[in-house]
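Predict structure. Chain length: 151.
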Amino acid sequence: MANMRYLRPITNTLLVVLLVGCTSIPVATVNSRINDWIKSDYKELIEYWGLPTRTQAIDDIQYAEWVNKETEPGNSAISIGSSSRSGNSSVGFGFSLFELGGTDDVCSRLVRYEGSGKIIDIVWKGTQNFCFQLTPNRNEVVRQNEAIMRE
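Prediction complete.
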């Protein structure tokens, strides 16, 4: 019984670590990171986001969309087990013919901008964590560029 007293804090700590690892970045945080780029222009987006997946012009407004997709494969399952009871024993093998638990991360960022390159707005949809990771922190980019210019 004395050992159980020591296991409870360890178990609770592991549970908290697992839960924290599974949390999503809040939508407001993703919005903030993406909307910081409204202060830039289209050429700067290309410099830091790469070329857009597609572009289109409607009247005097330009549209550019960056679409990213990342697929993490699932795991195939193979298991081996054995059992013995009352002099009888058995061995079992199991496997899955299909992948288990694969995930798709998708992020679409649609930018509306003027012919001059001035950004009007940015709309995103997709996996929060993936969109956050894909979009560079503009404030850090600006700071790094200013540091390089001072050197």
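Summary: The chain is about 40% helix and 35% strand.
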